[in-house]
Amino acid sequence: MAAGAADSGETLALLNGPTLDDIGDTLELLIGPMFDDIGDTLELLIGPMFDDIGDTLELLNGPMLDDIGETLELLNGPMLDDIGDTLELLNGPTLDDIGDTLELLIGPMLDDIGDTLELLNGAMLDDIGDTLELLIGPMLDDIGDTLELLIGPMLDDIGDTLA
Q: How far apart are CA 46 and CA 52, in angstroms?
């Protein structure tokens, strides 16, 4: 059964396939240009009408929209300026007060932190300096003495030669 059904499907495809393609091609040939002509005709008829409508709306609404814009500017401009001035008057001192308050609260705290760090790190750094002086100082002295012993007589000889 399955083989028979497959065979009948293939047979229908072979019989009807080219016919349906031919019908599609024929309709495309017959109707396609007609739709193109309809499109061109509508473009010729309606296109200028829409252009005229656009021009008319521009002529009617353009100045009206300009007038609306100018009216809103006249009405809202000063109001917005007043709002800005009012906010400045209300919030300006508040923000200044906040700044002063933070300065009063945090300033001394930061000074205390700075003093504490100075006390802790200053002494620590002094200790590090003293430690390095104790460790490296004699070594540097030894290096200096060694160089003096090695190079000193040579430098004396050079000095005597130049004199």
A: 10
